[in-house]
């Protein structure tokens, strides 16, 4: 025999109202409100994610630069930092004196395909001062060992940190440069999706000093 409570539940279903007292039209209204809120929020969440990734990538580049510089100072030999666009990674390489150059650390990019690091963004000038030239990426002809595997011919930007604190090119010429990080309109585009999301890192070849910059839509300010 069916209990009175079960009978009430059964009849409640046919009356279009569940046990908690919500009718089907009320539930549909709640779901519609949730859908509208999600549609409004998602673009803002995406923009925040892009901004966060652009900023985080710039800070990671600075961390790798400083770590490479510290290794050179403490171990009294040259270490190389590379931004490898072929492997989408930040590298620290021990130049190891007369022995083979050896990869000792690799950090993947934050958002491959979303952020660009290898070009200057269109219609934006570098921070001035110091007005350092944009970083120049080229095919690596020096190479290094990753375990037992030789790696060469990648498209990289390389900085050699020496034991005296200076930063030089492969030809031992001091290098001061500006690296830009920004979300682009496409993998091969130099147009930022939002100029206020452009970030930059400058490195001074004389001492290895690095600095972080934010673009406010008009000019760079030190972060």
List keywords for this structure.
about 220 residues; alpha+beta; minor pseudopilin epsh fold; six-stranded antiparallel β-sheet; five-stranded antiparallel β-sheet; about 25% strand
Brief account:
This protein is an alpha+beta fold and 223 residues long.
Textual characterization of the structure:
With 223 residues, this protein is of the alpha+beta class. The protein has a single domain (23-222), classed as minor pseudopilin epsh domain (minor pseudopilin epsh fold). Helix content is 28%, strand content 26%. It contains two helices and 13 strands, in the order ααβββββββββββββ. It has helices spanning 4-14, 24-75, and strands at 79-84, 89-94, 102-108, 115-116, 138-139, 144-146, 149-151, 155-161, 167-168, 177-183, 199-203, 210-215, 220-222. The mean pLDDT is 87.
Relative strand content: 25-35%
Biggest pleated sheet: 6 strands, antiparallel
The dominant shape is elongated
Straight-line N-to-C gap: 75 Å
Please give the CATH architecture: 3-Layer(bab) Sandwich
Q: How many distinct beta strands? A: 13
User: Which structural class fits the helix and strand makeup?
Assistant: alpha+beta
The CATH superfamily turns out to be: minor pseudopilin epsh domain
Please compute the radius of gyration using only Cα atoms.
Answer: 27 Å
> How many domains make up the 3D coordinates?
1
What is the count of helical runs?
2
What is the level 1 CATH name? Alpha Beta
Uncertain segments of ≥5 residues (pLDDT<50)? Answer: none
User: How would you describe the oligomerization state of the chains in this entry?
Assistant: single chain
List SSEs in N-to-C order: HHEEEEEEEEEEEEE
CATH topology: minor pseudopilin epsh fold
Question: Mean of the pLDDT scores?
Answer: 87
């Amino acid at each position: 025999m069916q209990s009175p409570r079960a009978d009430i539940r059964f009849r409640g279903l046919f009356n279009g109202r569940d046990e908690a007292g919500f009718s089907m039209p009320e539930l549909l209204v709640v779901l519609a409100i949730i859908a509208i809120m999600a549609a409004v929020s998602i673009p803002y969440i995406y923009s925040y994610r892009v901004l966060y990734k652009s900023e985080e990538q710039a800070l990671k580049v600075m961390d790798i630069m400083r770590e490479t510089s510290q290794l050179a100072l403490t171990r009294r030999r040259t270490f190389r930092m590379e931004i490898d666009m072929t492997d989408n990674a930040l590298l620290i390489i021990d130049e190891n004196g007369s022995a083979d150059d050896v990869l000792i650390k690799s950090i993947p990019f934050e958002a491959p395909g979303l952020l660009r690091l290898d070009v200057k963004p269109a219609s934006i000038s570098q921070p001035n001062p110091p007005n350092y030239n944009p970083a120049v990426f080229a095919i690596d002809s020096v190479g290094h060992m990753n375990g037992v595997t030789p790696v060469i011919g990648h498209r990289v930007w390389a900085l050699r940190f020496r034991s005296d604190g200076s930063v030089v090119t492969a030809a031992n010429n001091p290098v001061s440069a500006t690296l830009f990080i920004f979300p682009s309109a496409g993998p091969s585009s130099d147009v930022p999706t939002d100029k206020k999301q452009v970030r930059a890192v400058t490195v001074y070849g004389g001492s290895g000093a690095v600095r972080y910059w934010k673009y406010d839509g008009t000019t760079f300010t030190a972060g």
